[in-house]
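Question (not urgent): is this output format expected?
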Amino acid sequence: MKIEQGTSFGSVGEHDVDFSVAQLVETSDSFRHWFVSQTDSALDIVGYIGGVLHASYAGEGESDIEFGFLTSTGDRHIVLVENKISAEKQPNQIERYYNRGEFRVERDGWDSYTVCLLAPESYVSTEDEAEFDSIIYYEDVLEQIKSGSYDGGDFLGSVFEAALTKSRTSNTADATDTLRRIEDQFLSETEIRHLERDLEYTGYNKRTSFKSTHPEHHDAIRYDVFVGETGATGRTTVRLQIKSLDELTEAEREWLKTIASEHRGALPDYRWRLDRKVNIGSKKIGHEAVIQDSSFDTYVDAIVDELLTLTDTFHPIFVEANS
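Got this back:
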């Protein structure tokens, strides 16, 4: 790529992402509060103490990033961040993060800590979700950068876009065949005439998404499928999203969240995260459990069934609210 065509990243590594996140937390109060809310939505911070990259501990390895905050109760809280693009975790790596957190509390004057994984969505496993206190996806960081006004925002967004490109090509199995089966089966079974694939995700090998062309259905709403792992022991997430569009105002986003919040009782088995900008409701489908359930012949049948439940529930709600 020629320089005249703009900035291009041939390769982005985890250290580049570390520095980008550190810059955003150091220089932007709004990003800082957003970042903390993703690590612990109940944490009320009133001050930033500081941060350190690649903090080393004798016998316990190093943390990729550590940030310290002062809470409204006067406590000193530290967030320890493990950042991964595609590399495998080292033996006992997660355990060592918690050991470092305990060290900070017992010997270094901190009152509490949180251990967070920062990674592309395709990297995160079911075990990660269970073992880390919280997870921040690269995709959510990128959405936050795009939707805010940050010094160097375009450049930092390019760092995360390049990191996501790297993650898509290096560390996950191709789920294209599974996605095509889901798309074909869903579109043949849905009774909603206005649903179609979101062509933006053509070429993605882990994700597909559907939108409605109904004139009264808000264009930012997406019914999304992310195949984390293929095969009998894999997992898939079905999601209700509010996509970031140039024409979507914050007032409209909050209005759409309010609608979803008022009707989330219709899908009580979903995990609702209305503090997030995009992925506000989701349900995970474990392929192994589905295969053992005689209700479905294959895990694709279960994914499609859940997608039909989501669209049948929320499509008429958003149409009615917008009419």
